[in-house]
Structure formats: C-alpha cells, structure tokens
From TrEMBL:
GO terms for cellular component: axoneme; dynein complex; microtubule. The keyword Nucleotidyltransferase does not apply. It comes from Perkinsus olseni. Keywords: ATP-binding, Cell projection, Cilium, Coiled coil, Cytoplasm, Cytoskeleton, Dynein, Microtubule, Motor protein, Nucleotide-binding. This is Dynein heavy chain AAA module D4 domain-containing protein. InterPro entries: DHC, Dynein_heavy_chain_D4_dom, P-loop_NTPase.
Length: 257
C-alpha cells in the first residue's frame, strides 16, 4: 500500500532484547538509506517476548529515537548517510542538525502498526506503562463482524481449503453454519456474564480458529477413515484370496474322489 515496504520480526527461541534492538536499528538505517522512503513495521502482541520491546517502541513513537541505541561508529555512519539529505533540505551542516534531521526522517517515514488484542489485563497495563501506545497512535477498533462478514470470511477459507477434503459442494452450508455457531456462542458468552459476572471474550480471531479447527478435525477424521477403509479393503482382499484357495481345494478334492 502506497508503495511502502513492510517489515516484521521473526521470533526464535534465542530472540531477545538485543536482537530486537538490532532489528530496530536496521529499520531506522533503511529509512536513511532510502532517503526517507516509507517503511511499515508490523508488530503484534504475540511478538512481545520481553516488555523491553515496548519501551523501544514507546520511545520511537514519542521522540523518534531510542536513547543509546547506536554505537559511536554507527552514529558516524548515519551522519554520513543523512548529510546530503539534510543539505538538500536546507539544513545547516552540523552534527546536531543532521542528527535531528535523521530523527525527523524516522518520525515521518517509519510507520509502526501495532496489532494488539484488548482482551485481558495485559493490554491495560501496557497502555498505562507505555502511554505513547495511546497518545501517539491512531486507534482502529474492530467491532463484531456482521452476519454477511461472517459468511464471507468462512466462504473464503472453505474455498481455499485443500480440495482433497471434498467440501466444494458444501461451502455455502458450512459458511452459514459457522456464522450461526459464532453468533450463538457470542450470545451465550453474554448470558454467561449476566449470570456469573465472568467475562468470556469471543473475538474475530476465535471465529478464524473455529474454521481452522473444523478443517483440521475434518482432515484428521478423513485420515482415520481412509486408514480404516484401507484396512477393510485389505481384509476383503485376503478373504477373497482365501475363498479362492478354498474353492480350488474343494475342486481338487472332488477330482481326487
């Protein structure tokens, strides 16, 4: 979109705060190397291995930089990269001015997209601890999907399912069924809250997981049935072979008599 590059982080078992800071540095350097071309950093709450990740993001959102992020030699590299850009923008040729221009480029060109679930206490605690997540962001709230949206999402997922599942002729029925299940569970969750004062959240992600679970169970069940069918087929073949042998023995006995 808008010809911006999209980047995200790849979480591994050894991924830590140092690795995250290296990725942040790489993004900021890419902004300088591309002369301020737009870069989008997509970050979800499932990628928060350590809360210090949010401290870096909070600083970038608030000031455009992370204190003590770059080593001295890296600062010199950035100054060299940004000097022509600052000069073209009519800025003074001084280190402080050039660095300020670099920070300006980061704030203007590095767009951070945060995908957080509002469910639970963690989101509230993070918003209190890192206020820039609220103050420096535009918040898009995703409301419950209407009936047509539930149907369309299910239809797309079922159409994209493996053809070996054999559900092509049932996509419409499955899509409608999935929407009804989700809506009924949402209603039951509200009744559960009214009765026991305990909140259970049914989100769009829950709906996608429902579809994924159905397809997974269907594939698993088909595997079980295929294995049983193969076993029965082999058994029938063995019986037929045995019957043929018995018939041959009967014929041999008759001839011997």
């Amino acid at each position: 979109m808008a010809e911006y590059s999209l980047v995200t982080i790849e979480i591994t078992r050894s991924y830590d705060s140092a690795a995250f800071k290296e990725d942040i540095k790489s993004m900021m350097l890419n902004v300088a190397k591309s002369s301020g071309k737009g870069l989008v950093f997509l970050f979800s709450d499932t990628q928060i291995v350590k809360e210090s990740f949010l401290e870096c993001i909070n600083n970038i959102l608030n000031t455009g930089e992370v204190p003590n992020l770059f080593a001295a030699d890296e600062v010199e590299q950035i100054i060299g990269l940004v000097r022509p850009l600052a000069k073209a923008a009519g800025k003074q040729d001084s280190r402080d001015v050039i660095w300020s221009h670099f920070v300006h480029l980061v704030r203007e060109s590095l767009h951070i997209v945060l995908a957080f679930s509002p469910v639970g206490e963690a989101f509230r605690a993070r918003c209190r601890q890192f206020p820039s997540l609220i103050n420096c962001c535009t918040i898009d709230w995703f409301m419950p999907w209407p009936k047509d949206a539930l149907y369309s999402v299910a239809e797309r997922n079922y159409k994209d399912a493996d053809k070996s599942l054999g559900i092509d002729n049932y996509v419409g029925s499955l899509s409608a069924m999935s929407g009804v299940i989700h809506s009924s569970v949402t209603s039951m969750a509200e009744n559960f809250f009214l009765t026991l004062r305990r909140r259970t959240y049914i989100t769009p992600t829950s709906y996608l997981e429902l579809i994924k679970l159905f397809l997974s169970l269907l594939e698993e069940l088909q595997g079980v049935l295929t294995a049983r069918l193969k076993r029965y087929t082999v058994g029938v073949d063995k019986l037929n072979q045995t019957n043929a042998i018995v018939d041959k023995l009967k014929q041999d006995l008759t001839e011997m008599q």
